[in-house]
Amino acid sequence: MKSWSAPDYSPEYARASYLAYYCYEQQVNKLNEQLYFMSQTAISEVMGGCREGLALHSMGQLLYDYGNINRAHRYLSAAIDMSSMSDANRRAAPAVESLVLMERSFKDRGEYNATLVWLLVLTLVIWLVIIVGALIYYRRDMARLRKAHARIAQANNAKETYLKNFLDMCALSTKRLGNLCKTVNRKLASGQVEDLYGITRSGRIMDEQRKEFYMIFDNAFLHIYPSFFEELNSLLREEERYVAPTDGKLPTELRIYALVRLGVDDGSRIAEFLGYSINTVYAYRAKVKAKAINRDTFDADLMRIAVIE
């Protein structure tokens, strides 16, 4: 059996390789075989000292068809260089045409790659804008959520304060009623009816009771609505705004509107709660409303004070 030996790249081997290439060229899906035998032909051409560069040109064209443009460019350039060193310059024309076509392909591919880069950059910018927008929305949403949580916690604290003040008022009223009963019993037992009548006629007991009620009410309301002054002032003209009290007491007109904010809108009920006459209640309400920036929407705006959104 004859052992295998490396090809000698002789002119006969070059012709045989080219014939094999030609046979595979007539068949479908035989590009690998075509590349192999054409490469053998090109090697034989170079090693045999042939300077026409025809095989290298064909090899470059095959590689171009195969999609390997970089190698095809090198092979066609080598074919042109070999032709320029021989007297077969006229045969270099097909290789030059192929090279020109390939240069155009390089340019088209460069433009295509540039378009891809711009599309990629545009896509990244769009995603960046979306992410930044989402982060801004998230931060705003978190700020609103923190504000809502703060108001809920504030409302819970106000509820506890309101309950404590309510219990204090009930305990105080019970104590005052008990003291009044003791005084009445003592005066009646000793026959001091005139003294008893003087106590009730002076109204001192009711005045003291009402002052205690105002103090407890004002304290509870300002704990429930700590931003009441600030938000109410935003509804009034700048020169008509109120200064927040340092002693925790509401002015008479704002005490009336505090009840309105709590939903007690009827003038007779307000007068009953606070011990004012109905005319006094209407006069104070008109006084405050006259200071409003927008009198038509003042009542509706007032009811939105300290609303959790």
Explained architecture:
The protein is an all-alpha fold. The chain has two domains: 101 residues, Alpha Horseshoe (Serine Threonine Protein Phosphatase 5, Tetratricopeptide repeat), CATH 1.25.40.10; 154 residues, no CATH class. Helix content is 75%, strand content 0%. It is built from twelve helices and no strands. Helix 3 runs antiparallel to helix 4. The longest helix is centred in the middle third of the chain and has 98 residues. It is rod-shaped, with a radius of gyration of 51 Å. The mean pLDDT is 78. InterPro entries: DUF6377. Keywords: Membrane, Transmembrane, Transmembrane helix. This is DUF6377 domain-containing protein.
Question: Features of this protein?
Answer:
single chain, 309 residues, mainly alpha, Serine Threonine Protein Phosphatase 5, Tetratricopeptide repeat, 2 domains, 12 helices, rod-shaped
Outline of the structure:
With 309 residues, the chain is mainly α. The chain is 75% helix and 0% strand. The protein has helices at 11-25, 31-47, 54-66, 69-84, 92-189, 193-202, 204-224, 228-233, 252-261, 267-274, 278-289, 298-303.
Q: How many beta strands in the DSSP annotation?
A: 0
Order of helices and strands: HHHHHHHHHHHH
User: What characteristic shape results from the CA principal axes?
Assistant: rod-shaped
Number of domains: 2
Strand fraction band? under 5%
Q: Largest sheet at a glance?
A: none
Q: Estimate the mean pLDDT confidence.
A: 78
The number of distinct helices, counting runs of at least 4 residues, comes to 12
Helix/strand/pairing category: mainly alpha
Tell me roughly what share of residues is in helical segments.
over 70%
Calculate the terminal CA-CA distance, rounded to whole Å: 96 Å
Q: What value does the Rg take, in angstroms? A: 51 Å
The stretches of 5 or more residues where confidence is low (pLDDT under 50) are none
